[in-house]
């Protein structure tokens, strides 16, 4: 490798992150487009399968940083989930269950009509269930949204995330059992992985907050400490072949339940969180083989529309019983449109042989990488839960 090519390779990712951050700031200020939509555009344009500016993504290094970044956002999403509210208002859980069932059924049916093999259609239908809390929460934080739709978007995206993980791993276990006739061992492995992720996140949620209080009296100093703890949880989950996403979510849920109070500076993990967010969304967009998009764009768009319709129908159906107007029920459904990040994180620990099965969703993922955050902002604006533009600048 010539010195110039080596320099290009070393600079590719720092350059992509810098360009994504700069364009994101310009887009947010002048066009009022969510920053992460711009990050996704840069990731697609710089992807190895498009312009080749970024080198082929290795399973070492960058994907670990991206997974930690995803874990930080999922921890915050879990922390902002109020389990007592779900108990007091069971219609929220009912909404999530109806949404998961309708989405799974509708996507499974449409993929069958299109002619996709049954195993692949089943797998992709479980991925379609899962809203990405990372994208939804990132937009909410960036826009400083607050209100009924905002809180439902956070809670429902977390519930969708959990249901999507369980459904995906269950279907994957069934397929592996059929393929290898290993029956109970495969099912036990999947159930064990889920239980291990929950136990790992729960253990950190119980033990880490009192340990932090014993070490420091300054809450602001906990920003880095919690970030490091999330990194350890994610790393342990990866090493133990458990779900990093579920472990990080559980960590946040238990920390919230244990009355751990995060300061304003700890929300979003400050500058570290900003940097890792840029890396995460550029990485997610660059990781896929976009050369397959022309052949899958039609299928992906159809899946996106079917999924959005099922989600909006579910959130609207239970809007009044859950305490909001049917109009806000519609906007809540729109805020749940992002899905791509979770799909990739779910696939990562499984096996690379699943990547060809993802191809029919690539078109939809491309659409939601860019359009999803814009839809979330539009829904929050329609629900009147965004501050004045001048207040955000």
Structural class designation: mainly alpha
Integer count of domains: 1
Give the ordered list of helices and strands. Answer: HHHHHHHHHHHHHHHHHHH
- Count of helical stretches: 19
**Radius of gyration based on Cα positions:** 20 Å
Query: What CATH architecture label applies?
Result: Up-down Bundle
| Termini separation | 46 Å
Average of pLDDT = 80
CATH topology group? Na+/H+ antiporter like fold
What does this structure look like?
The chain has 393 residues and is mainly alpha-helical. Helix content is 77%, strand content 0%. The protein has helices at residues 3-31, 35-46, 62-79, 83-88, 90-114, 118-129, 133-143, 148-180, 183-215, 222-239, 244-257, 270-286, 293-317, 319-322, 326-335, 340-347, 355-358, 362-382, 389-392. The protein is globular. The relative contact order is 0.17.
